[in-house]
Amino acid sequence: MDDLYNRPIEGAEFVKFCGGNLGGEHESCIEFALIPGTTDGFVLHDTKPAGAGLELRATRTELDNFALGWVKQRRLV
Fold it and tell me: What are 22-73's pLDDT values in tens digits?
C-alpha cells in the first residue's frame, strides 16, 4: 500500500465514538473514516480542541491488531 499520509481525505465519511462523558467541546471522542480511494486505509481524529488538526492513519490490519491487543490487555469482553 502506498503512503497513507500522502492521500487526501476530503470527502471521507467519519464515524464518531464518544465515551468520556465530559460533554460539550471537551467530550472524549475519536472519529475514524476510510480514506477515499483506498480499501484498506483509515484516518483517525481526536475531536477535543487540544487534538484539533492531528490525525493518525493506519491500515485495517494495523487497526485490527491494535483493537485486539487493547481488548486483551484490558481484559475486556
Answer: 666 667 789 999 999 999 999 999 887 888 889 999 999 999 999 999 999 9
Do 15 and 31 form a contact (C-beta atoms < 8 A)?
yes
The terminus-to-terminus CA distance of the chain in angstroms comes to 32
DSSP 35: P
Q: Cell digits for 63?
A: 487497526
Q: CB atoms < 10 A from the CB of 43, how many?
A: 21
Sheet containing 29-34: give its strands across.
15-18, 29-34, 41-46, 55-59
Show the beta-strand stretches assigned E in the chain.
15-18, 29-34, 41-46, 55-59
